[in-house]
Each structure stands twice: as structure tokens, then as C-alpha cells.
Amino acid sequence: MNNRPVGVLGGTFDPVHNGHLRLAMEMATALDMEHVRLVPCARPPHRGAPTASPGQRAKWIRVAVSTEPRLRLDDRELLRDGPSYTVDTLASMRAEMPDTPLCLIMGRDVFAKLPQWHEWERIFDSAHIVLIDRPDIDAQLDPKALEALEQRAVSDLQVLHDTLAGHIYTYTPPPLAISASYIRELLGEGQSPRYLLPTAVLDDIMDAGVYQPQPATAASQ
What residues does the Cytidyltransferase-like domain cover (predicted)? Predict the structure, then answer.
């Protein structure tokens, strides 16, 4: 068995920013992972459709991680028809990496609503969960999520290396308050979000005109 886990960080990445990248790098380093895969969601079942296209979001991740071998783009959800169910993504990864521990990385606010996810209990058949717990996140856990945490929690990091799936490990990273919604807000107001996301990603966003105010048409003037 390959004892170094592979991390899985999903999201819309609309757009990918330094908060995503720093968290992924923190996980790769602190948990001694082989690498962390950033998995953009095509059609998130529990929120509105992303503003940027699947191709744009994948391109930005590819550009952002191009010089860091421990971070990778995994675009399988963008290539799959239908809603992006995490349980299916993890099952496909498990089939490809039968001897490698997988760690699904998620915030406490997301974990709080995990029982609303499609076939959520099957996630533990394929992966561990690394629960990101920050002091500023105060999320009331669904009773079933709380029960899963109580039954599956481990405090020894080595368990994530020695077993393939089934446990929950809690980690508190250093604070880094950056959000994709704030970046979209700045761009929508014509302000600069520079230094909140990789320069190459921002340059491509500006060139493509994504998230930015559209010029008024003659009919609306």
C-alpha cells in the first residue's frame, strides 16, 4: 500500500484563489500527502451554477498549479454528465488508486450539512475526511454528521497513512481570509482583487471579461 495519502479538495473554484491554493499546500505539507487534487465541480447539486465556464475554471486551476508538483488539477467531474456527486468522484478515484489512502478535505460548515449529500455515508467506503476547523466557523452539525464524527474521529495522523478510508481527522490551519465571492464582488464593482489570486489567473480573467461589469448597450443608454 502507498502510505502517503492523496488529498481531494473539491469546489466550484469560481475562480480559484490563493485561499484554495494555500489550504491545499498546507494539507500536502502538514499531513505529508503525496499530492492534493483540486476537483472543480461541473454542476453543484446544492448551490447555483458557477459564473465562469467549466473550461475557464479548469484552465485557471491548471495555470495556478503548473509550478507546484504537489498540487494537481483533476477535471473528471467536468467530463462527466449529470450532477457532480462527490461519492461518485471518490469511487472512481478509489478504482484508479486501490492501494492509496484518499482524504476528502472539507470545512466544518460543509461537513455540518454532509447528510444532505447524495449517498453521503458511502463516502467513507472510499476516503477519509479531513475536517478543517477554524475559530471563525461556528456551524451546528446535523445530528447524523455529529454521530459520524463521534464514531469515526481519530487524533493520530498516522491513521490516515495506515488505512485507506473511513476516518475523520480534524485540522486547524493558520487563518487566511480569502473568498471567491469577495473576488467576484470586487471585479463586479470594477475594483482590483490583485494579490488575492495568482497573477496569471487574474490576467486571464481580465482578458476574458469574466465577472466584470458589461458596457452599457445603446438600447439601455
Answer: 8-185
How far apart CA 141 and CA 23 sit, in angstroms, is 22
The answer to the question of residue 1 being in a domain is: no
For residue 131, give its domain range.
6-220
Whether 178 is in a domain gets the answer yes
Note whether residue 62 is domain-resident.
yes
Q: How far is CA 138 from CA 14, 107, 132, 177, in A?
A: 24, 11, 12, 15
How far is Cα 157 from Cα 151, in angstroms, rounded to an integer?
A: 16
Determine the Cα–Cα distance for residues 145 and 141; give it in Å rounded to an integer.
6
Q: Which residues pair with 130 in a beta bridge?
A: 105, 169
Number of domains within the chain: 1
Three cell numbers, residue 10:
473539491
Domain harbouring 215, CATH code: 3.40.50.620
Residue 174: what pLDDT?
A: 77
pTM of the predicted model, to two decimals?
0.85
DSSP H or E run through 128: strand 128-132
pLDDT tens, residue by residue, 146-162:
999 999 999 999 999 99
- pLDDT of res. 193: 84
Low-confidence ranges of the chain (pLDDT < 50): 218-221
